[in-house]
Structures are given as C-alpha cells and as structure tokens.
Specification:
binds NADP nicotinamide-adenine-dinucleotide phosphate, 38% helix, six-stranded parallel β-sheet, 289 residues, 12 strands, six-stranded mixed β-sheet, alpha/beta, single chain
Length: 289
C-alpha cells in the first residue's frame, strides 16, 4: 500500500500504561499492510481516570476497536455493552470491538494461549493440565482451557486476595463446562506433585520469573517434573525462564509466551477486520529469532 494513511483509514489501538514497549503496533500494522487493509494501529498511554473519555472519543471517531492492557483489563468493563463468553466468565477484557457505537468486550488471551499450545505441537484437549496463577492472564487461560475441552484443570495460587476471588469463578466454570476445575494452595507441594503426575501440561501464568527477576521460579524442586510433562511459561522476557530451564534439565519439553502474544493478537485482528492475520510472515519477522 503506497499511501499508508488515507482519509479513509480506520483506527485501531492499544490502551494501557505503559504501552511504548508493546510489539502489538508492529504486528497489526504489518498485517494490515500485508493484506492491503486501510487500517492503522496506534498505542496510547492512558490512565484509568482518562479511560472513559478516551472510549467516548473512540466512539465519536468510529475507531473499529482496541486492545486493553494493564491496568485496564477490568476497568474497561464499565464502558462496554456486550461481552463474549470468555470475557463474561473472567470479568476481564483485552479486546473491544466497536459496531457503530455498540462496544463488545472479548478476552483473546485464553484463545491465544490455547493456540500457542497447538503451535508448539502439543494437544491438551481431553487431557489434564496444571495452571499456576489466578491473576488476569491465568483466569483467561483457565476459562478457555475449560471451554475448549481440557479434562481436569488443577489451579494453584498462593493464599490471599486473588485466591479467594478465584473460587467463585472456578465454581462457575464447573457449572458451565464439562471440565473439572479445582483450586489448591501453592504451598501444598504434595498435592502439586500429585497433580503434576496426572498432568500433560504445566502452565506458569504467574509473573514469577519475569524480567528483571529472572532468578525466580515458582517451582524450584526438579522432582516435581516428569519427562512426559510439557512445561510452558506465558512469560516471554526472558525467552527461557528459570522454570523452563529447570524443566528442560529434568527432560521436559518447554515453550514460552511469545506465541500466546502472537495468537491473542491474531484473534483480535480477526474480530476487527473479519480476516485471518497472515501469521507466518509476522511470526518470522517479530517472533522467531
Ligand atoms: P496479574 O493479574 O497481576 O497476576 C499475577 C499472578 O502472579 C497472580 O496469580 C499472583 O498471585 C502471582 N504472583 C505474583 N507474584 C507472586 C509471587 N511472588 N509468588 C507467587 N505468586 C505470585 O498479572 P497477569 O496480567 O495475569 O500477568 C501475569 C504474567 O503473564 C506476567 O508476567 C505477564 O507479562 C504475562 N502475560 C503474558 C501474556 C502473553 O501474551 N504471553 C499475556 C498476558 C500476561 P497473587 O494474586 O496472589 O499476587
């Protein structure tokens, strides 16, 4: 596309704080160019206090949709008209679609993660999975894994505020899906060991191990791993977390959160444009190093 921005160009965006480091503008703008779509994606650093005003402006400007990142994934719900099933279950939204002023909230983090499992060459449908974390990303993954047909989901978190909040959410999943979901205290290492023995996939969806605290790992005892267990971390900075290193040493296959980032974006792209993101060239340019 020669004249990249025209009088017809449709706006899409990212709202968060901070946002300058985000790879999303590169990924979406590259995809728009590759498909010759007259859209543009911009990142805006916005505080929770400014969020309502920005959303109103986006409606006036007929912005097609936007992503929300920290700290807005929950706050944005106050400004939306409809919710997807995953967004409703989690109470968190990372993608908004604007249909002539009617805003629908979606959560594509879970879909992104489940796609990343497939992209890494694994299949967890009908199998058991252990999930570490009950924060925003963890609940999105938990809901999508249950909706997609994981057989049993063992969720672990340290006791505290988000642990307490997770129980009603997990009760809902047990009512609404065929997946058996249980919540355990992370300090209960005997149960963790038993759950890992029964699991095909372990997912770290806590922020433990993320840069700059790369010397931290949510599991440090290598005896908890077994060779048939695939270990994934949704952190992508560093690319190999300490958890992944320990799992590799124990003979486990591992993968990180980069493809989750790619596929959550691809899902948002489809919601806004109705087109599949051209995954391969984007993957090669920004994700496979
Ligand atoms: P969040 O909502 O703040 O949740 C953080 C989770 O980590 C909570 O379960 C929290 O437990 C747990 N945690 C934090 N510090 C801990 C510690 N010292 N010991 C044990 N548990 C601890 O954050 P989030 O948005 O879910 O993000 C979590 C991670 O996922 C971040 O590293 C983020 O970069 C990454 N992420 C990746 C993608 C991707 O596309 N790959 C997408 C979203 C997020 P408490 O609630 O008890 O504190």
């Amino acid at each position: 596309m020669k004249n990249r921005i025209t009088g017809h160009t449709i706006l899409t965006a990212l709202l968060g704080s901070p946002v300058a480091h985000s790879i999303s503008p590169m990924m979406h703008n590259e995809a728009f160019q590759l498909l010759d779509l007259d859209y543009a994606y911009m990142a805006f650093d916005v505080t929770p206090e400014q969020l309502g005003t920005v959303v109103d402006s986006f409606k006036i400007m007929n912005c097609r949709g936007f992503n929300c990142t920290m700290p807005h994934k929950n706050y944005i719900c106050d400004y939306l008209d409809h919710f997807s099933e995953a967004a409703q279950l989690t109470g968190a939204v990372n993608t908004v679609v604007n249909d002539n002023g009617i805003l629908t909230g979606h959560n594509t983090d879970g879909v992104g993660y489940m796609q990343s499992v497939k992209a890494a060459g694994f299949d967890v449908i009908g199998k058991n999975m252990t999930l570490l974390g009950t924060g925003g990303a963890a609940t999105a993954i938990c809901a999508q894994a249950a909706l997609d047909g994981v057989k049993e989901l063992y969720v672990f978190n340290r006791r505290g505020n988000s642990f307490e909040k997770a129980q009603p959410f997990i009760d809902q999943l047990n009512q609404k899906t065929n997946c058996k979901v249980s919540l355990y205290d992370l300090a209960d290492t005997t149960t963790l060991k038993n759950c890992l023995k029964n699991s095909s996939l372990l997912t770290n969806a806590t922020s433990v191990g993320m840069a700059p605290n790369t010397e931290a790992s949510i599991i440090t005892d290598p005896n908890l791993f077994h060779e048939e267990l695939v270990v994934s971390d949704i952190i992508y900075n560093p690319e190999t977390t300490l958890l992944m290193k320990l799992a590799q040493e124990a003979g486990c296959k591992t993968f990180n959160g980069l493809y989750m980032l790619l596929y959550q974006g691809a899902e948002a792209f489809k919601l806004w444009t109705g087109k599949e993101m051209p995954i391969e060239p984007i993957k090669q340019k920004y994700f496979d190093r």
